[in-house]
Amino acid sequence: MPGPLDQLTIATQPSPALSATVVPAIREMITTGLLPQGAHLREAELATALGMSRGPVREALVELAREGLVVLRRHRGAQVIALTTEDAEEVYTLRRALERLAVERACGRLTPAHLAELDAVLDRMRKLDAGYAPAEAVELDLAFHDVLVRAAGHSRLERSWLQIRGQIAMFLHDRHRARRDFHEIAHPEHRAVRDTVAAGDVRAATAVIDKHLVGAYDRLRSARTD
Amino acid sequence: MPGPLDQLTIATQPSPALSATVVPAIREMITTGLLPQGAHLREAELATALGMSRGPVREALVELAREGLVVLRRHRGAQVIALTTEDAEEVYTLRRALERLAVERACGRLTPAHLAELDAVLDRMRKLDAGYAPAEAVELDLAFHDVLVRAAGHSRLERSWLQIRGQIAMFLHDRHRARRDFHEIAHPEHRAVRDTVAAGDVRAATAVIDKHLVGAYDRLRSARTD
DNA sequence: TGGAAGTCAATTGTTGACAATCGACCGTCC
DNA sequence: GGACGGTCGATTGTCAACAATTGACTTCCA
């Protein structure tokens, strides 16, 4: 039975692990490009900067390595991954496989709450104009697909998604800096996905998400110079 | 240019991290059922048993949590995952998505060395009789699929595969203890996969792997009692 | 006797110090 | 002059002690 104390969930949520508070901070510095690709991350340096010991920092770096944002080499420390065109190919082929499964399952499980979330994101996409900030485009794009993955009700799928999500963010940031057409594409493309999933048509939905991701990969590739 | 010194790669491989040596040991104790599902793993206990401090043990537990073999709860430590029927559904739907991608790519990349590996495993499968040990069945089964994944030449796919591989091993162990028909099924089923992949027929290969995995999931479900 | 608050032991989270390893630099020898 | 070998500083890997949190037990009171 809901009561006024339900509002306290955040306050009562016990102090999260220190490493858990660090991961988002470093992650964003990497995905936004503030920490350039190939940059060397020294444990002691980060620890003093963040006001903690090396232990939690070390755990955070392991987590970021798991997400593919840094590479860890024994006795040589961590450095921000330098993404190549082959990496883009790997990430997007895996992404296609995962999101097809996500959409397939979401078709029968999409709740009104999920639909409302999708529509809220779509609404913000519709309002974008040519002067949009790259960071906002990345955020909206990923937020949409986050909902799809969550709606699939598949914890392992969600974890696999998180394992490439950060890398996708890096690619998208580069893409939006090089090519600014998201305000024209975002709304109609994602709207088509929303509609077919909401209609519960598995066959159509998987076809649409597939087409969307192939297109997204093509746009990403054409924006790359190497 | 290959020379005689190439044989020394193993010898020159520097001492691996302590946690890396611990992970396989605990992993096998879990997948074989030596450590029962739900068992509590205490860091200090493991550390003294393994003759090291809690640091590496802690890292090892994080890795095992990543593989889905233990669950980590803050201030409550690690315990061996208690797999449910819903978990089986999650693992096998994700597995299908991953292996379809693996086979799709393997079709155009299978080297003679990969083929030889597959045939070696198939040969051992053919020689199985009704008295096979469950552990051997699990090993052969996974070894076959390991080659497929490796042949895909996709490092991120490989990592995703390792993320569910241990859980698959747990399910298979249970299945082989409850139902012993692997010696009749293993060789023909996997042989069909090998042949279509070797032929390079993407469409046929994905269909065959799909059928194989659906069948494997059905057999696994029928062997479960809960 | 039942429920709630307080206490305590067990266990994990964090820290700072020490040991091991790596890559770069530098001098030497052929 | 180029390659080999040794030394050194910087950085990570490991350890043991300390702090914080949890869940169970005990105690208290209505």
From TrEMBL, chains A, B:
What keywords are assigned to this protein? DNA-binding, Transcription, Transcription regulation
Q: What is this protein called?
A: GntR family transcriptional regulator
PROSITE patterns in UniProt: HTH_GNTR
According to the entry, every stretch annotated as the HTH gntR-type domain falls at: 16-83
Question: Mind telling me which InterPro entries this protein's record contains?
Answer: GntR_C, TF_FadR/GntR_C, Tscrpt_reg_HTH_GntR, WH-like_DNA-bd_sf, WH_DNA-bd_sf
Q: Which domain of life is it from?
A: Bacteria
Q: Is this entry keyworded Transcription?
A: yes
SUPFAM superfamilies named among the record's database cross-references:
GntR ligand-binding domain-like, Winged helix' DNA-binding domain
